[in-house]
Write a structure and sequence with these properties.
The complex is a heterodimer of chains A (379) and B (599). Chain A is an alpha/beta fold and 379 residues long. Chain A folds into 2 domains: 250 residues, Aldolase class I (TIM Barrel, Alpha-Beta Barrel); 55 residues, no CATH class. In chain A, 41% of the residues lie in helices and 22% in strands. Chain A has 16 helices and 16 strands. Chain B folds into 5 domains: 179 residues, Rossmann fold (3-Layer(aba) Sandwich); 85 residues, Beta Barrel (Elongation Factor Tu (Ef-tu), domain 3); 71 residues, Elongation Factor G (Translational Gtpase), domain 3 (Alpha-Beta Plaits), CATH 3.30.70; 108 residues, 2-Layer Sandwich (Alpha-Beta Plaits); 110 residues, Elongation factor 4, C-terminal domain (Alpha-Beta Plaits, 2-Layer Sandwich), CATH 3.30.70. The chains are: A alpha/beta (379), B alpha+beta (599). Chains A and B meet through helix 8, strand 12, helix 11 and helix 16 of A and helix 12 of B.
């Protein structure tokens, strides 16, 4: 079953750490929804697809940088073009300050049933330091408005390892957020990406990040706190109340098929035999131009051979606490993981990192801390 | 040519005092090379004849000079290796000459190494012609330098030509003086052939070549010759000179200098200092002074990437073709895998070779701590020679050990005497003598253990004297010394590549310094790594590399996969460049970073 991702590349302002495809709103913003709808319609019967669709995810950028009406029109186009399950998870990402109660009501009524709010930290100074456009108060307003508008499945994005952040700060944020009771919390360690303003500032010595031990302490303390508050870790950085794991993201980690629409969106699905991954152009003008001419905006298609597919299934699947179902692995590749990677299997075993599970290939907490090391064994 | 019209000479100068420039001007004035070809400094030809991957040394250049009397003279300018480790080679090159042009920078004065070479020249009965160079510079003090030459060396210098090799000023005067003052050779052209080998090199087309100075008799193609020390015999295929192009000649006669090509397979078969003679009419006695040169400093050289072992071997073999003083044999290290134990004449020689391996052969290397050659007296009465700390016998079987000592001579302005003496003292130096050779130049003599100067002594000397001090040393003798092997353990496993033999008093500071450095250069791993220094079984220093806490990408979604795979690829590549010491992965660079630490 194929998931659908829709990319909205606009933001009020780009954050200092962000290396996603996002730009300020400009003259292309108005034409963008039409082009998106065009792409969705054109894609039907031209891209590999197995229905019905279990999940639709509007990400960005900031999807709510577009008017609610535009998002709704795009969702309707998806529904008209593809068979979306009646119980599908339909998520929209939102930054505080970009949507009102009225917007949430409209979105909810149109079928969006999951909201992902970017908070990052409850400390306004930290928010300012990394170029966020909102305050904690604005987040609170947005959260309550969404609840009032009927969103019963809300995710809050948080970060640790921000410049100047202490463990106290981070736990304070977690406490405030947990008190609000969202169904899902994503808690990421800041990744310093080359080419971002934050990277430049850190390199120039203008800004200092907490050292790696301090970040690890925050992470471990955060995990313990979340567990105690009823949020179960189910992926490296993701926590949910029981039954609220993000279905859309699980598609990625299961290496299951998905179609991505919009500029710079990625797709992944089995073509005729081989697994394929392709991406759309990263240029908004080119994206608009191609669709005006009735062409799909695909920029690059990668053929993933058997060996790479095996690796990707492991690289993504071991991110999940539950791991990779043994039977699914056997069905997909016709052999067990031990057979496919006997040396890697033993290396992980020697470290004591395989979790004790008869049904899944899964790592212990310790093993997950060293996931990159584990994956190098498989490379 | 008639010997009365031959002049064989060399130029002695400190680095940067203008040896190459003066040689260039001489070649120009004698029309040996046209001015337009003079872009490169010809005698310094390390970089010139690179075409076949092997550097060709211009060991001797032949020029013809027409003197004021209208007579034409043959000049053979013989190059001398320019640094402290090659004293023996220098002495053989000097032996091939009757005269030496001593070039002194008018702005600097005499340096320690120049002095050492001048004494060598005098010992070899050479006529030394002082020349004051760089008189075109505003800071030139020719008067002061002349006095210095007279005071320090005892050579009359009032008639020394004051030249500017750069502009060519008065260089003609030097040529005239060479004719007047350097004695012509005086061998017996009809006697049994005696030719001194003063340099060897390898050419891809001609094979191994010997540069010779013919003293008696002659060498011509077709002759069968014998290397008197090694006993090898060869058929001469070609004789010639460097002008500075290869030029074959019919014969090299008494007093002449040139190269001999014969069916010589490797430079090993003909040694610098050996005498070539005619097999049919052999000389009774070889020329005096031949000695077998033994390497003084050893270290292990390994490829940073183990798969380049073959490339390293090939590169060493190529360098060896031109450098008979380099020795190497296969060696295995638990930490570094397959590599070579290499022997060098000294630390500079070692640096030159490792740099050439990296630069000319594009190899990434790991070298182990340099070691000198120790004499180990066993309880059994036997003496064992050790050049590798790993092969040191069990301490309980050792009666005592001896280490090589050198006589070091340092010249410096008086301002730096204090810091320099402190440096020597810190390196277990024994003060011998101090001489104010002039009001602003001091000569200090120390006896130093060779093993103390093979680390950072040179660099420290330079930094303590703001670059003014110069340094020369020669092997003196072996002395009984309280030596221990200092080992390093990573997570409890000994790392053989880091072991080193040190004086007992140096073991603690060195052990601590190396542990501290290792702590910084060993990347954090999944477990805590104790880094320990030990003598015998006893731990004398310890540092800890803390465990890495997280090695995981926080985010990985649909669009990230290719990029995140590349990150893992990079991490994996990094791991490949690591060496495994027991359970610990150590980057190749880590071995290098502790080399120069001397506590």
């Amino acid at each position: 079953m194929t998931g659908i991702y829709v990319h909205i590349p606009y933001c009020v302002r780009k954050c200092a750490y962000c290396d996603f495809c996002s730009v300020p709103r400009d003259e292309t913003t108005e034409q963008y929804p039409d082009a998106l709808c065009r792409e969705i319609e054109l894609s039907r019967d031209r891209l590999p697809y197995e229905g019905p669709v279990p999940s639709v995810f509007f990400g960005g950028g900031t999807p709510t940088a577009l008017p609610a009406e535009a998002l709704i029109r795009i969702l309707e186009t998806v529904r008209r073009t593809y068979e979306v399950r009646s119980d599908a998870e339909i998520t929209v990402e939102c930054n505080p300050g970009t949507a009102t109660y009225a917007d949430f009501v409209k979105l909810r009524a149109a079928g969006f049933n999951r909201l992902s709010l970017g908070l990052q930290s409850a400390n306004d100074e930290l928010l300012k330091a990394v170029g966020r456009i909102h305050t904690y108060d604005q987040f609170l307003t947005a959260f309550r408005a969404a609840r009032d508008a009927g969103f019963q499945n809300i995710n809050v994005d948080l970060m640790h390892g921000l410049p100047g952040q202490t463990q106290g700060d981070y736990l304070d944020t977690l406490q405030k957020v947990c008190d609000l009771g969202p169904e899902h919390i994503s808690a990421y360690a800041l990744i310093l990406e080359e080419g971002t303003p934050l990277y430049t500032q850190v390199r120039a010595g203008e800004i200092a990040l907490p050292d790696e031990d301090a970040v690890a302490d925050m992470e471990d303390a955060g995990m313990a706190f979340l567990k105690q508050r009823g949020y179960e870790r189910y992926e490296v950085s993701n926590f949910a109340k029981s039954g609220y794991e993000c279905r859309h993201n699980l598609i990625y980690w299961d290496d299951a098929p998905y179609l991505g629409f919009g500029v710079a969106a990625h797709s992944s699905a089995r073509g005729e035999g081989e697994w394929l991954r392709w991406s759309n152009t990263e240029s908004i003008p080119e994206y608009l131009r191609k669709l005006r001419r009735g062409k799909l905006p695909t920029a690059e298609t990668l053929q993933i051979d058997r060996k790479e597919e095996l690796f990707e299934v492991i690289m993504l699947g071991l991110r999940k606490v539950k791991g990779i179902p043994r039977q699914a692995f056997l069905n997909r590749f016709g052999l067990t993981l031990e057979q496919a990677f006997p040396d890697a299997w033993l290396n992980v075993q020697a470290n004591g990192w395989w979790a004790d599970s008869p049904t899944h290939y899964a790592l212990t907490k310790h093993g997950m801390d060293y996931l990159n090391t584990v994956l190098c064994y498989f490379r | 040519m008639n010997q009365s019209h031959i002049r064989n000479f060399c130029i002695i100068a400190h680095i940067d005092h203008g040896k190459s420039t003066l040689a260039d001007r001489m070649m120009e004035l004698t029309d040996t090379v046209a001015k337009r070809d003079m872009e490169a400094q010809l005698l310094d030809s390390m970089d010139i004849e690179r075409e076949r991957g092997i550097t060709i040394k211009a060991s001797a250049v032949r020029m013809f000079y027409t003197a004021a009397d209208g007579e034409q003279y043959m000049f053979n300018l013989i190059d001398t290796p320019g640094h402290v480790d090659f004293t023996y080679e220098v002495s053989r090159a000097l032996k091939a000459c009757e005269g030496a042009v001593l070039v002194v920078d008018a702005t600097q004065g005499i340096e320690a190494q120049t002095l050492a070479n001048v004494y060598l020249a005098i010992d070899n009965d050479l006529e030394v012609l002082p020349v004051i160079n760089k008189i075109d510079l505003p800071s030139a003090e020719p008067e002061r330098v002349m006095h210095e030459i007279e005071d320090v060396i005892g050579l009359p210098a009032e008639d020394a030509p004051c030249v500017s090799a750069k502009t060519g000023l008065n260089v003609e005067e030097v040529l005239a003086k060479i004719v007047d003052q350097v004695p012509p050779p005086s061998g017996d052209p009809d006697g049994p052939t005696k030719a001194l080998i003063f340099d060897c090199l390898y050419d891809n087309y001609k094979g191994a070549l010997s540069y010779v100075r013919v003293f008696d008799g002659a060498i011509r193609p077709g002759m069968r010759i014998r290397s008197m020390a090694t006993g090898h015999e060869f058929d001469v295929t070609e004789v010639g000179v460097f002008t500075p192009q290869w030029k074959t000649v019919e014969e090299l006669t008494a007093g002449e200098v040139g190269y001999v090509a014969a069916s010589i397979k490797s430079v090993e078969e003909t040694k610098v200092g050996d005498t070539l003679t005619d097999v049919e009419h052999p000389a009774q006695e070889p020329l005096p002074g031949y000695k077998k040169v033994n390497p003084m400093v050893f270290c292990g050289i390994y490829p940073a990437d183990g798969s380049h072992y073959g490339d390293l071997m090939e590169a060493l073999e190529k360098l060896k073709l031109n450098d008979a003083s380099l020795s190497f044999e296969k060696e295995t290290s638990a930490a570094l895998g397959y590599g070579f134990r290499c022997g060098f004449l000294g630390l500079l020689h070692m640096e030159i070779i490792t740099e050439r391996l990296e630069r000319e052969f594009d190899l990434d290397l790991v070298t182990t701590s340099p070691s000198v050659v120790y004499r180990v007296k066993m309880m059994s009465g036997e003496t064992v020679i050790i050049d590798n700390p790993a092969s040191l016998p069990d301490p309980s079987e050792i009666d005592y050990m001896e280490e090589p000592m050198v006589k070091a001579s340092i010249m410096t302005p008086p301002d730096y005497v204090g810091p320099i003496m402190e440096l020597c003292q810190n390196n277990r130096g024994i003060f011998e003598h101090m001489d104010y050779i002039e009001k602003d130049r001091v000569k200090i003599l120390y006896t130093l253990p060779l093993n103390e100067i093979i680390y950072d002594f040179f660099d420290s000397l330079k930094s303590r004297s703001k670059g003014y001090a110069s340094f020369d040393y020669e092997l003196k003798d072996y002395q009984k010394s309280d030596l221990v092997r200092l080992d390093f353990l990573l997570n409890g496993d000994m790392c053989d590549a880091l072991s080193t033999i040190v004086h007992k008093d140096r073991a603690y500071p060195k052990g601590r310094a190396v542990c501290e450095k290792l702590k910084d250069v060993i990347p954090r791993q999944q477990f805590e790594i104790p880094v320990q220094a030990a003598i015998g079984g006893k731990i004398i220093a310890r540092e800890t590399v803390k465990a890495v806490r997280k090695d995981v990408l926080a985010k990985c979604y649909g669009g990230d996969i290719s990029r995140k795979k590349k990150l893992l690829e990079k991490q994996k590549e990094g791991k490949k460049r690591m060496r495994q010491v027991g359970t610990v992965s150590v980057p190749s660079d880590a071995f290098m970073s502790v080399l120069r630490i001397n506590g």
